[in-house]
Amino acid sequence: MKIYRVFIIAGLASLTLLTTCSTSQGGGGLNLFSVEQDIELGKQTAKQIEDDPKQFPILPERGNEQIYKYINDITSTILASGKVDYADQFAWEVKIIDKDSVLNAFATPGGYIYVYTGLIKFLDSEDQLAGVMGHEIAHAARRHSTSQMTKVYGIAALSSVVTGNANPGMLEQIAIGLIQLRFSRNHETDADNHSVIYLCESGYNAAGAAGFFKKMEGQPTPPAFLSTHPNPGDRVKNIEGKAQEMGCGNGNTYTERYARMKRLLD
Q1: What's the pLDDT tens digit per position in 66-91?
Q2: 134 and 195 in contact (C-beta within 8 Å)?
Q3: Which residue, among 176, 174, 158, 213, has the nearest Cα to 191 in the 3D structure?
Q4: pLDDT tens digits for 91-109?
Q5: Hey, where are the domains in the chain?
Q6: Would you tell me the crossing angle of helices 185-199 and 232-245 to the nearest 10 degrees?
Q7: Nearest CA to 103 among 226, 250, 244, 255?
Q8: 213-234 pLDDT per residue, tens
Q9: H-helix segments, the chain
């Protein structure tokens, strides 16, 4: 079973580089991109995904209104926490990718969120899915993707891309590299912590993301982003410890409701 994390950034050459660089949130370090460029990157990435149905077979909303409403309600609950950066600026659009073999979700810069049917079917309860979505929302809201891009490719290379001066080979190389982009330890921990922060007063079990990592530990071939640092066991301890530290309480798992929703994908 092939499990992977996807970050495809398309149309970079159409962006205009601002004269100053920003400092990334959550994890620190230089971020070459502005918030406005995160938004533009998200739009163009979403279009690229939409134009590639072979790799990203998006479940149509028409005929699947109930499951989409369910997913959007989870997203709205997280955004209503008042803790999500750029809650009113980023798109926060959710699409379901119809691929049962992939246990994953991802978010692009600018707040476009993608959840695979394989992940929805794999998880056991709504709080687990909410925890994963909170984690991915945090990656977008804390601008981890563009911060990591700056670190991996360097200012000179990205400057040439965003100003339209890169040769086609450089653009292709960066795009291919971004498919397998991995976040740093600080970014992953920051996203885990913010998943708890978002869910703490939502009515959900705030440590819902820990359930995802517990299940993934039992997989015979864990994905690359779980086999590196921090390891799943440490992440479970961190997430549960953060929820305890914040006094979040037990919250709800909504297991039965989740089971009913999963059946909509059968």
Answers
A1: 999 999 999 999 999 999 999 999 99
A2: yes
A3: 213
A4: 999 999 999 998 888 888 8
A5: 12-183+255-265
A6: 40
A7: 226
A8: 998 876 765 554 555 556 778 8
A9: 35-50, 65-79, 117-122, 126-141, 144-162, 168-179, 185-199, 208-217, 224-227, 232-245, 255-262
